[in-house]
Write a structure and sequence with these properties.
heterodimer; A: about 750 residues; alpha+beta; 21 helices; about 45% helix; elongated; disordered N terminus; disordered C terminus; B: about 100 residues; alpha/beta; two-stranded parallel sheet; 3 helices; about 40% helix; globular
Chain lengths: ~750, ~100
């Protein structure tokens, strides 16, 4: 059973590696056009295809081998300079890479493999690939050139002795021979039973098999050696090239463990040497007429061997070096990381509880110890979260392909510029941001970038640019998708907004407010529906996805110059530094990164804004927002509910009957996306680590709350959704402004 | 050719996963074959065969011969036949060629 599990693991590794190789291949294909000297990239593409073919051969994944083999052959011709890697071939190679990816997916799902030769898509690709092989010296039967030396097939002789651990290491010599057969024709093979003992002494899981093979192929020595790449450390491989002197075979015989006569016999049976040739040569030596000759052979051996050994060592070293850099990182199951982070979350809650008790006991020593512990917990939290941080570059890299494909589809010449690939964010965020970004990029290409003629008329370079930019900004990651296209049509959007009843006619709106309309459900101007972006996902879905990640999205546009969509996301979804505030008995948490400062409460009489050092600061009264029953402790309170649609609930009495035993209210000034607003609260409780627990679905509709957290005391605190509150604060203000302008409109 | 014979049939996988188990079974089966007799191994129900299977068969052949018996392969499933074909094993196991 254990063996089965091992095999599954090996297969799993193969699948992971194949995907990585396909990614490498894709990246190289996409950069090859821009390179002055593409040789390195072409080699990388070839290596990727070659390695995938090699390892799938080991697993007997014939469909992958068959298909990849043709891909590799074409790439080999590219490498030789016989075929140019032009745009059409790059596109074909990308499609082929996708197809291999699907074959690998099928392997992972354990599905039976379709034969690419008969399966329509595979057959179509193979047909297109084969056009690049036309003019190739016609390969005989299954012989196709892998690392072809250009000539027709020639007879090689291979002498194979597998090491004792080959089987135990999960390798099957038979697979190598099957794979070898894909490179040419095995003319003769002799399975050597000589080293196999009887049943009494046999180690059934050890390997003592050997083979002598006469092999007809157009491939070169490196290609043949490559077949055995995965087993080379554990196998003796001797190759006698075509057209070798009989002396070479004698040399071979001398170096092999089996009896000479028998080997000679085998070689003759393989057809590698004729009996006559061998006899003559052996006689010559035996006659002693040529002690010198033996010496010469030995000398030759001495000459040849070091080079071969050196090459082998260099290769081995190379393999080991790449392995050692690989081993600096460890693959960890994402679930394990999630579990760790959950535990760290529990740890923080527990530590907060302990701290609370310590303070209550007023035991100074205990409090000190607790404070040290709290520092450590904080560090553990940071390192644990750091483990899950990944660079956004990987996500960006995927878009190169998208831009390449979509640009072709649209008949536009579009380039992707990428900035800030090294910006890190939580893996869970990365996974969820891919689709919304994809839509934004497609949108930018489809609607943003104008057709070439229009660009020319506007005096812009023919190649349009879509840029992806990422950077950190006050606890968030900001991702911008920009294009240098025509910009949004303000009038058209506004007209559509009025038509759909999203905007009252004649309402004065800022550009940002108008552009934000395109995120409304079902909003699309007539021009916007094309087969590309009209794929059922609208900008409203983009916005909903981003909001679900506690992020926000904004749009800026300049007519004739381009559009920039700015997405802001929290760095992590799990644990934040929170600032706790209280309203009545309820505790709320504001993400610390967004807290700018705290000031004493003061308001312009009758308004929901205050004067912050000469600036207007709109604010929200949390007590009103959440309709909390307790009376505010401040006599100056004026009920003036902010924002929202529908009639504002009046709170008569509350405003008039102020209680005079006023504890001072405070305003927490929060900053988001470059703007500030205030939150009016009863009390400031200070900073604390906050483990975010999602709200149950029942509360999904509650506006202004993005999650919950458990306090040290065991009470629940609600985490405020600052971006949403800010939106409400602004709406409240513009509503107030409108009411002031035209009092009739709202009555 | 049918003298005293006892066919030992291998069902299912004839691979590394069962190599240890099958080695013991083959040894036991061979011991039951009278001296001078033929040890027949029936591979007609083999679903999968790898190098370890090949090696076991070669070892069984050696043991048979060393103890004055002969080993014959009595039947070949398609999976086994494919392996025999690739490695040209027929020469070792006296199938009529």
């Amino acid at each position: 059973m254990a063996n089965h599990i091992d095999l599954d693991q090996v297969l799993h590794t193969f699948i992971l590696e194949a995907r990585e190789l396909l990614e490498d291949m894709e990246a190289a294909l996409l950069r090859v056009a821009d390179e002055a000297d593409p040789r390195e990239s072409i080699n990388a593409i070839f290596r990727a295809a070659h390695t995938i073919k090699g390892s799938s051969g080991l697993f007997g994944l014939d469909a992958v081998v068959t298909f990849t083999h043709v891909v590799e052959s074409v790439l080999d011709r590219v490498r030789d300079g016989a075929v140019a890697l032009d745009e059409a071939l790059v596109a074909l190679m990308l499609a082929s890479g996708d197809y291999i990816g699907r074959l690998v997916d099928a392997v992972e799902r354990g599905e039976p493999q379709a034969d690419p030769k008969t399966e329509p898509e595979g057959a179509a690709l193979l047909g297109r690939l084969r056009t690049y092989l036309a003019g190739e010296p016609a390969p005989a039967a299954s012989v196709a050139a892998s690392g072809a030396s250009g000539g027709g097939p020639a007879r090689w002789h291979l002498s194979l002795r597998f090491g004792p651990d080959v089987l135990r290491n999960g390798m099957d010599p038979l697979s190598f021979i099957r794979y070898l057969a894909t490179l040419g024709e095995i003319e003769h093979i002799v399975t050597l039973p000589d080293a196999v003992p009887g049943l009494d002494t046999l180690d059934p899981e050890g390997c003592c098999l050997g083979f002598e093979i006469a092999f007809l192929t157009g491939a070169d020595r490196a290609a043949i050696e490559n077949v055995f790449e995965f087993v080379i450390d554990d196998c003796e491989l001797r190759i006698v090239p075509p057209g070798s002197q009989v002396a070479k075979y004698i040399e071979l015989i001398r170096s092999l463990p089996e009896q000479r006569n028998r080997l000679g016999d085998i070689l003759v049976r393989c057809g590698s040497v004729t009996a006559y040739e061998l006899e003559t040569a052996l006689e010559l030596q035996a006659a002693g007429a040529s002690t010198q000759k033996i010496g010469a052979i030995l000398a030759e051996q001495g000459k040849v061997a070091p080079q071969v050994v050196e090459a082998a060592l260099a290769k081995q070293k190379q393999v080991k070096e790449t392995r050692s850099t690989e081993s600096q990182s460890v693959r960890v199951d994402a679930d394990k990381l999630d579990r760790l982070i959950n535990l760290v979350g529990e740890l923080i809650i527990a530590a907060a509880g302990a701290n609370l008790v310590a303070r209550r006991t007023r035991n100074v020593e205990l409090m000190e110890r607790n404070s040290t512990l709290a520092d450590l917990v904080e560090e553990v939290r940071d390192s644990a979260l750091q483990l899950r941080m990944v660079k956004i570059g990987g996500t960006f890299a995927r878009f190169k392909r998208v831009v390449h494909d979509v640009a072709r589809e649209l008949g536009k010449d579009i380039e992707l510029a990428v900035n800030g690939e090294d910006t890190e964010l939580d893996k869970t965020v990365v996974e969820k941001i891919g689709d919304p970004l994809m839509h934004l990029v497609r949108n930018a290409m489809d609607h943003g970038i104008d057709p070439p003629e229009l660009r020319a008329a506007r005096g812009k370079p023919a190649t349009g640019t879509v840029s992806l930019n990422a950077f950190h900004d006050s606890g968030s990651i900001v991702i911008q998708v920009s294009d240098d296209g025509g910009g949004l049509n303000r009038e058209k959007i506004l007209a559509k907004g009025v038509e759909r009843g999203l905007v009252e006619p004649g309402r004065v709106m800022t550009d940002a407010e108008v552009y934000a309309l395109i995120f409304e459900p079902g909003f699309s101007t007539a021009e916007q529906v094309t087969n590309l972006s009209g794929r059922g996902v609208g900008m409203d879905v983009v916005k909903r996805n981003i909001t679900a990640l506690r992020g926000s999205v904004a749009i800026a546009s300049e007519a004739g110059r381009g559009t920039t969509v700015t997405v802001r996301l929290p760095l992590t979804l799990a644990i934040i530094n929170g600032f706790q505030v209280a309203v009545g008995k309820a505790v709320f948490v504001v993400p610390m990164d967004m807290v700018d400062e705290c000031v004493e409460f003061a308001a312009e009489p009758g308004h929901d804004y205050t004067d912050l050092r000469g600036q207007v600061l709109p604010f929200i009264r949390l007590r009103d927002l959440f309709d909390m029953a307790a009376e505010p402790p401040n006599a100056e309170y004026r009920g003036h509910p902010p924002g929202g649609s529908g009639p504002a609930p009046e709170r008569p009495g509350a405003a008039a009957a102020g209680t005079s035993r006023a504890a001072r209210q405070n305003i927490v000034v929060v900053k988001h996306a470059g703007q500030k607003f205030g939150l009016v609260v009863d009390a400031l409780m200070g900073e604390a680590q906050t483990v975010i627990k999602p709200l149950s679905r029942m509360f999904a509709q509650v506006r202004g709350i993005s999650g919950s957290s458990i306090l040290g005391s065991g009470d629940v605190a609600l985490i405020l959704d600052v971006p949403l509150l800010m939106q409400e604060a602004q709406e409240g203000r513009s509503q107030a402004a409108r009411q002031a302008e035209s009092p009739a409109a709202s009555q | 050719m049918n003298m005293t014979s006892s066919a030992f049939r291998i069902d299912g996988e004839f691979t590394i996963y069962r190599a240890a188990e099958l080695a013991v079974a083959l040894k036991a089966a061979l011991a039951d074959v009278p001296a001078g007799g033929a040890f027949e191994v029936d591979l007609s129900e083999v679903t999968e065969m790898d190098s370890a299977g090949v090696q076991l068969l070669l070892a069984a052949k050696r043991s048979s011969e060393e103890s004055g018996r002969a080993l014959r392969v009595a039947g070949l499933s398609p999976a086994a036949a494919e392996v025999f074909d690739i490695l040209r094993l027929a020469t070792h196991f006296g199938e009529a060629h």
